[in-house]
Design goal:
Layout lengths: L3 H74 L7 E6 L5 H13 L3 E8 L1 H4 L4 H11 L11 H13 L23 H10 L3 E5 L7 E5 L3 H4 L5 H16 L4 E5 L10 H7 L5 E3 L5 H15 L5 E2 L33 H10 L1
Parallel strand pairs: 1-2, 1-4, 4-5, 5-6, 6-7
Antiparallel strand pairs: 2-3
C-alpha cells in the first residue's frame, strides 16, 4: 500500500532532480552562451562605430560641398536671371531663412526681387474654400473664363495675373490681353483684395511686373504629424501650377523630405507639374540649383532636380546660358509731319 511517506519522497526526488539539472545546465552552458552574446555585442558595437564614422565623413563631405558651392556661386549664377523681376511666394509653414537665402541667390544671378507674398494658413483652410473661390471671381476681369476651374486654380490664375508683367499697352492706355497676361484690371487692387480677405500678406510692390516666381514649399518639420498635410499640399501644388501659367518661369523649392510621401514637392511631381522643382532648398548647393532650375524654366524647360525620386538629375545639364542684356529700345523714326522731316524733304528738292 502506497502511503504519504512514499509521495513525500517522490516529490522531494523530483525537485532534487530539477535543482541538479538547473545547476548542471547553467554551469555547462554559461560560458558558451556568454561568449556568444559577447561576440554579438562586440560585432554590433563595431558596426555602430563604422556607421558613425561614415556619417561623420558624409557630414564633412556635405559641408565641403556647401563651401565649394558658395565659392563657385558667382560663376555658376552670373547673369542667369539678368533683367528678370522675381517674386518669392512662401507657402504656409515655409522656412523664412530658406526664403531669404533664395532671395540672395536670385540677386546674385542678376535678377531683382520686387516683393514677397506669404500665403497664410487661412488660404488652405478647407472651411474657407468657398470664400477663396468668391474672391477669385470677384477680382477676375473675365469670370466666365474660370468656369469649370477648381478653386485654387482660380486663385492661382488671378494672383498670377496680378503679378505678371503688364502686356504692351494700346493707344487708350489699357492693358491688352496677350498670352494670358494682365487684361483690363488693376493688379495691385487684385492682390489687395486677397490681403483684405486675410488670405495672403504682400511685402514690397510685386504687382504688374513679375517675370518669374520662386515658391518656397512648407518645411517638412513644420508639417510633421499633421492629418491635413496631403490635402494642403495638393491644393498648394494646384495653386503653383496656375501661377506658372501666368508668368514666364516658376520653381518650387523645398527640403528633401518634402519630395517624399505627402510632401508638397511629391504632390507636384505626382501631378506632372510643368514647372521646375528642387528638393534641396535650404542648403547653399540646393539654393543655387533652384536658381539654375528657374533660369531653365524661364526658357520653357522646367524639370525636377535634386536627390529625390523621379528627378532629371542633380542639377540642369547643360547649365542654362547667361541672359544677354536687354537691347535698348530703338529711337522712334521722325514723323513725316515734323519740321525735321519737312526740312529733309526740302533739301532733297
Amino acid at each position: 500500500m502506497i502511503d504519504f511517506r512514499y509521495h513525500l519522497v517522490s516529490i522531494i526526488a523530483v525537485f532534487l532532480a530539477l535543482t541538479v539539472g538547473l545547476v548542471l545546465g547553467t554551469t555547462m552552458l554559461q560560458d558558451p552562451l556568454l561568449d556568444t552574446l559577447q561576440d554579438e555585442t562586440a560585432e554590433l558595437r563595431g558596426q555602430t562605430e563604422d556607421l558613425r564614422a561614415e556619417r561623420d565623413v558624409a557630414d564633412r563631405v556635405n559641408a565641403g560641398a556647401d563651401e565649394l558651392a558658395d565659392a563657385a556661386a558667382g560663376d555658376l549664377l552670373e547673369d542667369r536671371l539678368r533683367g528678370l523681376d522675381v517674386v518669392l511666394v512662401q507657402a504656409p509653414g515655409a522656412d523664412a531663412d530658406t526664403a531669404a537665402s533664395l532671395e540672395d541667390r536670385v540677386k546674385e544671378a542678376g535678377g531683382s526681387v520686387s516683393g514677397r507674398i506669404e500665403v497664410r494658413s487661412e488660404f488652405v483652410d478647407p472651411s474657407n474654400t468657398a470664400f477663396v473661390d468668391e474672391l477669385a471671381l470677384q477680382v477676375s476681369a473675365d469670370p466666365a473664363s474660370l468656369e469649370g476651374v477648381g478653386t485654387y486654380e482660380k486663385a492661382g490664375t488671378e494672383i498670377g495675373r496680378a503679378l505678371a508683367r503688364s502686356s504692351e499697352r494700346d493707344g487708350d492706355g489699357e492693358d491688352r490681353e496677350e498670352g494670358g497676361r494682365n487684361g483690363g484690371h488693376d493688379p495691385a487692387a487684385a492682390l489687395e483684395t486677397f490681403v483684405e480677405g486675410g488670405l495672403i500678406s504682400v511685402h514690397g510692390e510685386p504687382a504688374g511686373g513679375t517675370d518669374a516666381v520662386v515658391v518656397v514649399a512648407p518645411s517638412s518639420a513644420e508639417q510633421a504629424g499633421r492629418d491635413d498635410r496631403e490635402a494642403e499640399n495638393t491644393v498648394l501644388a494646384s495653386f503653383s501650377s496656375a501661377l506658372h501659367d501666368r508668368v514666364e518661369g516658376l520653381v518650387l523649392a523645398g527640403d528633401v523630405p518634402s519630395s517624399h510621401g505627402d510632401g508638397m514637392l511629391a504632390r507636384a511631381r505626382a501631378s506632372e507639374a510643368g514647372f521646375a522643382t528642387v528638393d534641396m532648398a535650404g542648403r547653399p548647393m540646393g539654393d543655387i540649383v533652384a536658381v539654375l532650375a528657374l533660369a531653365e524654366d524661364v526658357d520653357g524647360d522646367g524639370a525636377a532636380y535634386g536627390v529625390g525620386e523621379g528627378v532629371r538629375g542633380f542639377m540642369p545639364d547643360p547649365l542654362p546660358e547667361p541672359r544677354a542684356s536687354a537691347s535698348p529700345s530703338p529711337s522712334p523714326s521722325p514723323s513725316p509731319d515734323t519740321d525735321e522731316a519737312r526740312r529733309a524733304a526740302r533739301g532733297e528738292e
